[in-house]
Amino acid sequence: MSFANKLIQAFLKPNLERAEFSRNYPDETQFKVFNYLIKKAANTEFGKKYSFNELLGIGPSEFSRRVPLSTYEGLKPYIERVAKGEKNILWPNKTKWFAMSSGTTDARSKYIPITNDSLYKCHFEVGQQALAVLGHNYPNNAAFTGKALAIGGSRQINKLGENAFCGDLSAVLISNLPLWAAMKRVPAREIALMESWDDKIEKMAHAVIKENVTSISGVPSWTLVLFRKILEITGKDNISQIWPNLELFWHGGVNFKPYRSQYEKLIANPRMVYMETYNASEGYFAFQDNPNSDDMLLILDAGIYYEFIPMSDFDSPNRQAIPLCDVKTDVNYAMVISTNGGLWRYIIGDTVKFTSLRPYKIKITGRTKYYINAFGEELVDDNAARAIRVASQLANCDVKEYTAAPVYMNANERGRHQWLIEFNIPPDDIDKFARALDSELKRLNSDYEAKRYKDISLTGPEITIARENLFYDWLKEKGRLGGQNKVPRLSNNRNIIDELLEMNA
Known about the structure:
The longest helix has 22 residues, at 3-24. Mean pLDDT is 90; it is low at 103-107. Strands 6-3-7-8-9-10-11-16-15-14-12-13 form a twelve-stranded mixed sheet, sandwiched between helices. The chain has a four-stranded mixed sheet with strand order 2-1-5-4. Strands 17-18-19 form a three-stranded mixed sheet, with helices on both faces. Strand 8, helix 13 (257-266) and strand 9 form a beta-alpha-beta unit. With 505 residues, it is α/β, with parallel strands linked by helices. The protein starts with a helix and ends with a helix. Helix 1 (3-24) crosses helix 7 (116-137) and helix 11 packs across helix 12 (220-234). It contains 18 helices and 19 strands.
């Protein structure tokens, strides 16, 4: 083990101990977090409205009964006041930083409060826990020995109020990095936060080619754009010829499964480690503590109290959220959070399934908005990503991007799903790809299989091949290049796919 690895692992040892404690005592940890949140916010306007002082002696069940479930729109009037400089509204004191949310094609921006507590006790401390777990699992990994390439979004820090600032999450984090972390990262801040994604990729590629990059963090789709630009500039065959010590990729924002084969071709290092993270504007929720499995450890001690709504009840007017201790494995849940950023019983919009209860581990399955359930098939993003990967292997092709939407029944046709797919390497037999996709979806999703039975209510998938760079061009037209922006993989209506099809003509 190198001296740098020994030094960093000694520094991170308390974070590893914290992670172990919350793994071993999850329910106690969540109860402690609940009391911390309620006590800290008791004298805020929100806390007084719902008598938080009384909840300290009653507990989470009364909190769930008394405080309503909320979306961004429900908390927006409070957040707007916080952004104007009012203090003690959702969380004590004033809030200086706000993250402009990403991950949706909606043109409206959401401004998520980033308090000092959420910045340091959630985003940064969970990041250190993830590093500590990495060091424990891979004590000789080269990630600690060189530079960390961070591929963030494309929003500069802008003023939101008299003393408030906003940007995408990566911009807020970069602006507040501790000195030791800032010294390790590349490229320079002025490049990392450039507004123009095309110019940024060009400058970033030239700036980092000669650096000793040993770890990368970013969204898989946009990181590939940078890789291809670097290979174009250098004339090299793969990224390992440029960065032979690159051994770690922290990825998140989109499902990695459809991209993994592309990364394995571009990075030739057999010591390469891929670790998924679940770090959103609203909080750092989970990370992959075992790269040999495809689930993530839910972080329970970072100032976030969790509840979950079974998706089978999500559209019910009487929907109820359950506490973490009542969840079950293999049930699709909408995640509800109360945080040290001042979000209370907030429906974040992501859906998850638990793969383990001791410890609590999750997979992100999709979004509450982005799924297909036009015929009762309840198809979610995780189903789609897995099926695309299997179909690609069986049909010897490579998928770059895709989206799918229903084609509704009419007098002459039964319903089906239309998949618009951009290939890096197209299949020799598109019908074979479609059959493989359909077969794997049936295997993964019993509701889909039931609706496909004898083509009674749903026929096989229709595959439409997208032209090169269609998805990139659509995002560019929307002004949403970079960061966690992407075209939704699934949609229950045809609004998005019809726009793409028009551009594909």
